[in-house]
Amino acid sequence: MTKKEKIAFGRLNQMRNDQIGKNKKIRIGFVGGGPNSFIGYSHRLASRFDNRFEFVAGVFSRDIKKSISFGQSLGLSKDRCYDNFITMAKKESQRGDGIEAVGVMTPSGDHYKIIREFVANKVHIICDKPLTATIKDAVRLEKLIKKSKVIFALTHNYSAYPMLREAKEIVANGSIGKINLINVEYPQGYTVGVKRKDQKNTLKWRLDKRMAGPSMILAEIGTHAYHLMRYVTNLEVKEVAAEVNSISSEVTVDDNAFLIVRMNNNARGSIWVSSAATGGENGLKIRVYGTNGALEWFQDDPNNLKFTELNKPTQIITRASSTVSEFSIRSSRIAAGHPEGFFEAFANIYTEFADSIIDYKKNKKSKLIHPSIQDGVKGIKFIFAAKKSSNLNSKWIKI
Amino acid sequence: MTKKEKIAFGRLNQMRNDQIGKNKKIRIGFVGGGPNSFIGYSHRLASRFDNRFEFVAGVFSRDIKKSISFGQSLGLSKDRCYDNFITMAKKESQRGDGIEAVGVMTPSGDHYKIIREFVANKVHIICDKPLTATIKDAVRLEKLIKKSKVIFALTHNYSAYPMLREAKEIVANGSIGKINLINVEYPQGYTVGVKRKDQKNTLKWRLDKRMAGPSMILAEIGTHAYHLMRYVTNLEVKEVAAEVNSISSEVTVDDNAFLIVRMNNNARGSIWVSSAATGGENGLKIRVYGTNGALEWFQDDPNNLKFTELNKPTQIITRASSTVSEFSIRSSRIAAGHPEGFFEAFANIYTEFADSIIDYKKNKKSKLIHPSIQDGVKGIKFIFAAKKSSNLNSKWIKI
Amino acid sequence: MTKKEKIAFGRLNQMRNDQIGKNKKIRIGFVGGGPNSFIGYSHRLASRFDNRFEFVAGVFSRDIKKSISFGQSLGLSKDRCYDNFITMAKKESQRGDGIEAVGVMTPSGDHYKIIREFVANKVHIICDKPLTATIKDAVRLEKLIKKSKVIFALTHNYSAYPMLREAKEIVANGSIGKINLINVEYPQGYTVGVKRKDQKNTLKWRLDKRMAGPSMILAEIGTHAYHLMRYVTNLEVKEVAAEVNSISSEVTVDDNAFLIVRMNNNARGSIWVSSAATGGENGLKIRVYGTNGALEWFQDDPNNLKFTELNKPTQIITRASSTVSEFSIRSSRIAAGHPEGFFEAFANIYTEFADSIIDYKKNKKSKLIHPSIQDGVKGIKFIFAAKKSSNLNSKWIKI
Amino acid sequence: MTKKEKIAFGRLNQMRNDQIGKNKKIRIGFVGGGPNSFIGYSHRLASRFDNRFEFVAGVFSRDIKKSISFGQSLGLSKDRCYDNFITMAKKESQRGDGIEAVGVMTPSGDHYKIIREFVANKVHIICDKPLTATIKDAVRLEKLIKKSKVIFALTHNYSAYPMLREAKEIVANGSIGKINLINVEYPQGYTVGVKRKDQKNTLKWRLDKRMAGPSMILAEIGTHAYHLMRYVTNLEVKEVAAEVNSISSEVTVDDNAFLIVRMNNNARGSIWVSSAATGGENGLKIRVYGTNGALEWFQDDPNNLKFTELNKPTQIITRASSTVSEFSIRSSRIAAGHPEGFFEAFANIYTEFADSIIDYKKNKKSKLIHPSIQDGVKGIKFIFAAKKSSNLNSKWIKI
User: Fold this and answer.
1) Among D163, D167, D174, D185, which Cα is nearest to D295's?
2) Cα separation, B263 vs B266, whole angstroms
């Protein structure tokens, strides 16, 4: 092991192991995420991953019996399993050992009213995306959060992969020069072959525009693509031209979007998000091209980053290897070569949320490394702009 | 070796070896393709590949000394090296052993007037793309070819890769169902970092709109992408919305295009072609998604085709393996596992051109397996439609 | 979502989420794994992953202050941080809430004496590999475990990847026919460039044969390779011919081994394990060839399994997709397409260990899905046989 | 295009285009390679590829009618189609325009007696591998060639891939330091599932030890693997321990070999060659590990070379890109990004053979870039040593 490797290895160990040191675990509850919810499971595992949270309460069903049954199976005590968020917010606020943070993974249309209850009690919020189902809700939620000063994190989990973050760092340190082109694609296939009679089973509340907003596919994964584009490049999308369609014949909501974007630095980009790409599982990929180099990251191969400097061979930079940045290695848990995946990235958001809360408790201004309320609001505005463009026959719309 | 393999191997051997049988080699000349021309070299090698043509004449320079010097170095006799196509057409037509076919790889703006001379003498034409620099030239060239009935082949060479053709066959036999989505990308990087003073060196006649038409990138590779999209799917692009830009700061021509398309069966698609994608070499990829399956072919890995049936594992179909179609295997020369590449595909077009000429000589209607004059005309209309769309702020334009 | 997908998705959710139901969490302690130990961290995270263990005690240093400091930082109470395993075994056995299980990740040479103490108190054992540093220790440990009837699990974590297990299932159901050839490779590079003065830093106790056994590389990763070979094929290695060397010039222990093996069904195989393969990170790969098909799994791409039936295209089977086996999907936590990695596999061993303990408590015979004491003993015999072969100039040695 | 790229592109064009300049084409004939012979086709195409040979004569069958029929279909004149090599050698030597070179692709057992006839007439020889079926033949062929001073080339075609040659250059310039480990594998699957009654169809003369030597798989691809190992590293194999088997149950010849080797610089290596690796197509891969770096080349992806410097990210060096060596680019024909394949590599051997002949004609000592008679002799000694080792239960045997 060379000195460089030792440093890398040391950095790795210091950062992201499970030592909480003198900090206590943060008491957290969840609203949403019942027995068959993948996203509920993901949030709970992410909170447990780095030993930073103690899971103590939750609403898992509107039927109190079901909520208790599920909560107890997760190890909660009966009296902290609730059947609605209002009761939960109230009861928890009355306890000495009540929750300090809450994870919200209900349909987006309910986010505002749920979060409002908890913020009133100074509970910190970690919320699934998209932020809300309307711009109005997004904006008033932003005001609420700003005013209350609680910590707010949005789980744009893909932005927390170590090598995606390495891409962000490489852009930030100028190694690829001025960005000229960006391409993000996310071709999934889950609506292909869905029959009309089954779509409720597959898409659930996503069929209800009051809950999911105006465009299923833009809400589900369009916001992820849009966020990654902004996150890696540190640029903003100025305007968008979109063709958003319901492609699968028996599906009634948008399941494909082709977008062209103009960035605030005059770069151009394209986004493709779909659930109509037959056979597609995840396939999230981002490519960024600058005057001096290019980057490519692909979620199917998340531990590698392709970095090409102008007129040089492409380099495959591996996670936690000796040349990666401090930020990337802090987002990583295991030495180079062993694969990390989805849950580690998700856990990064939770652990950074914990760090923000600890800063809050110490009256320190947090760096808010995780996605913020502003990111959430922009995501909603993006959905509405892209949908509007599509409705206007792909007219360019400012975000 | 199983019976199936033996058949496959037999098919392979019968088809594309170098046996010309009782047919004589076809005498061919070339217009264009001087000492440093990659495309000239490619055409000559492609014509030689399958032993079907005898290369006997050419124009390689407007300076007769240079043309002779280069022609002789290629093995031509001095008197069949010309300094202009008019002399060549005339002199060759007066010989008993004059050329029967001509390959044209000059700037597109010159195609019409060159081809006209040779067609007048019933010389068959194989021409590089794009067909012309204007719609007017394309249309009158089409009329000319139709009227004269000579064979015309356009070298959309990518369409002749065996596994791209396997994709076409799989679509044609209905295995992926009705096509819903298509994505073609071709991100090259050759204009990145080009200085204003050097762009003439890099782009040559492509800077001259009279020669190259209204959009460099659309002409250079946009037409390839558009042709592949049509070729594999057997669908037509009905309309296009485009954002075409000159991205590289010191380059004066279009070097990036993002396109969204609507197909005549109501499928949607997107095309991205670029020479501004830093570090990009070729990267030509096509993906097609239908109601029952999907296909993906990538020129960087040309001997494999990804085929995914709905709810089944992706299959990697390899070139010349025992399950591939007759058409694919006829386009192939070596047993599965050994890599074929660019030149074999290019040679397929030449050999199919030879087959068409032999049919012509026998008064048989040729199947014209290679790209045709109609493909060429459509390509030009596509360029103009896409450019117009971009000029009108990405308005949808019918092709 | 088709019916098949729904079933797959349902299976996924039922199996490996964090519901412990009516079972209580199992109280666990750890011996070994101090502040800079990657393996200690891995064990702790794996135990926490599925919500099945409560981490309550440990020995992290022989210096009680250090042990307490580290234990507390992990959330332990002071009185359950010990400075040696004898005290820990004794004190924990005297508590009503003492540990029910212990994870052992000390040098192999200490395993026997540590485990003996805990087994005496009917504490269940999960132990890192290789089992011991001598055959003698391995054999008497096996006797001890058998006699005591406590649950014993060995953390051959690679065998718990879902798609490696899918390979095992495909072999078991006969889909590849009789196995003829097996190849396992694990080319790492961590001893390359290590200076004599630094090797103690890199290799630590692995330099001490009393702790690590007769061959560093065979103990470190040779046993993993050997176990995977047996695990996937359900065959045994009958004899081995080996060339084991210390390749890196300043390293004093074995860092490369090329092995040829003969299996009990007469198949042949080869194993290559190395830490002298410059630039190698992990690169663990297994390939199995039978009369009707073949399988390939690669830890760098752990969510995919290549499956080739004779004369058919290779299929890429993806983790948790609708066609995978019950066993594979039970070993998986997230829907197809999102990457899982190293820690999920490690956690599978822990969760199966928990399942075995619950069976034990219920007086049910456990299926012992995780690697067992017998696997551990075989691994040690393999190390000694391979080393002996190498010492005898690659003579074939029976295991 | 940068200056560096221009140079690269210029180099490319100068080198391997089809300009023969003032040199005349070399008249060549072939012995072997009838209607269904893949190797015959490959030799003919390779000779035609770079415009350097004129194919004028051949023996394609012992039946003169068949030989004429096939020869004429290839464009030969009737009187230069022969039914045996003795007549061909004699008649051609009597013509003013007789062959100057001959390609030999008969069974190895016939090589010596055929070549002897042509060498007697000072005809240059290009011969398929393995050189002979016995060491005796190999040694006397070497003497013959040395004495006669004709040019002799052996078609170890894999050694002529541009990026394999780039690997050789990188080793030669010291960039990976002292070589410590080498691994070559070539797992094919063509004997799997072959029935006893069909093996003659599949393996033909390879079943006859007098023609094919003592070990089918070692002769067929073992010699390629061995040659590549020597070629890339510039090292020699000192001794070998081998396990060579007939694995497929109905096949009577060797179809799998696992080898361990010790190199003359004390490096260690392993070779695996097989036709029993179910589903394997070609899969030829070489990996070389040195004190400062490592290289990996894979024939399935022949245009890329992986180069890893110690503690740096792996680089993917692409064929003909601006950083590759003169030797690699001279072995290449098209700009980076477009795939080259098997035939280009094969053609390199032919073109280098032509270059050697031209040097010979000019009384210049040729550099003999292509594999030589010595390479051929070593290959045969390797086969016999490996087979002997296997017969002696994998005892180490010196080559």
Assistant:
1) D167
2) 5
State the amino acid at position C222 in one-letter form. Answer: G
Residue for token pair 């927390």: A160
Residue C248 DSSP symbol: S
pLDDT in tens, chain A (399 residues): 444 445 444 555 444 567 777 778 999 999 999 887 889 999 999 999 999 999 999 999 999 999 999 999 999 999 999 999 999 999 999 999 999 999 999 999 999 999 999 999 999 999 999 999 999 999 999 999 999 999 999 999 999 999 999 999 999 999 999 999 999 999 999 999 999 999 998 899 999 999 999 999 999 999 999 999 999 999 999 999 999 999 999 999 999 999 999 999 999 999 999 999 999 999 999 999 999 999 999 999 999 999 999 999 999 999 999 899 989 998 999 989 999 999 999 999 999 999 999 999 999 988 889 999 999 999 999 999 999 999 999 999 999
* Bond before D214 cis per omega within 30 degrees: no
Q: Give the residue from B346, B381, B353 showing the smallest Cα distance to B142.
A: B381
**Beta strand B285-290 with B293-298: parallel, antiparallel or unpaired?**
antiparallel
Closest CA to C223 of C112, C384, C40, C114: C384
Cis peptide bond prior to A130, omega within 30° of 0: yes
Euclidean distance between the first and final Cα of chain C, in Å? 50
Q: Decide: A295 and A275 in contact? Cβ < 8 Å.
A: no
Q: Are C258 and C141 in contact (CB under 8 A)?
A: no
Within 8 A of D299 by CB-CB distance, chain B residues are: 338-339
3-class DSSP assignment, residue D107: coil
Q: Which residue of B has its CA nearest to C319?
A: B313
Name the DSSP letter for residue D160. Answer: G
> With contact defined as beta carbons under 8 Å apart, do C81 and C72 qualify?
yes
Does the distance separating the beta carbons of B44 and D48 come in below 8 Å? no
Helix (H) or strand (E) holding A48: helix A38-49
H-helix segments, A149-196:
162-172
In Å, how far are A179, D85, D98, D102 from D354, measured between CA atoms?
Answer: 49, 22, 16, 11
Give the β-pairing of C397-398 and B81-82: unpaired
- Taking the C-alpha atoms of residue B58 and residue B28, their distance in angstroms, rounded to an integer, is 9
Contacts of C362 (CB under 8 A, 6+ apart): none
Peptide bond into D130 cis (omega under 30): yes
Q: In chain D, which residue ranges form alpha helices assigned H by DSSP?
A: 3-16, 38-49, 64-73, 85-94, 111-119, 135-148, 162-172, 199-203, 209-212, 216-217, 223-233, 326-330, 342-361, 373-391
Alpha carbon distance A34, A55 (integer Å): 15
Q: Which residues pair with B269 in a beta bridge?
A: B182, B261
ipTM comes to 0.95
Q: Which residues contact C213 (CB under 8 A, 6 or more apart)?
A: C108, C109, C130, C132, C133, C134, C219, C380, C383, C384
Q: Domains of chain A by range and CATH?
A: 3-157 (3.40.50.720), 159-335+373-398 (3.30.360.10)
Asked whether the CA dihedral D37, D43, D44, D45 is positive or negative, the reply is positive
Q: What is the pTM of this model?
A: 0.97
What's the angle, vertex CA D163, arms to CA B319 and CA B330, rounded to 5?
20
Look up residue D357 and give its two tokens: 């002949």
What span, in angstroms and rounded, lies between the C-alpha atoms of B119 and B132? Answer: 16
Which amino acid appears at position A58 of this protein?
G
Q: What's the per-residue H, E or C state across B152-164?
A: EEECCHHHHCHHH
Please check whether residue A187 touches B, CB under 8 A: yes
Which phi and psi (to 5°) does residue D179 adopt?
-75, 130
Q: Is A78 exposed, middle or buried (0-12, 13-18, 19+ CB in 10 A)?
A: exposed
CB atoms within 10 A of CB C176: 25
A chain contacts of residue C22, beta-carbon cutoff 8 Å: 73
- Please indicate whether, in this complex, the C-beta atoms of A313 and D313 are within 8 angstroms of each other: no
Give contacts of A19 with chain C, Cβ < 8 Å: 35, 70, 73-74
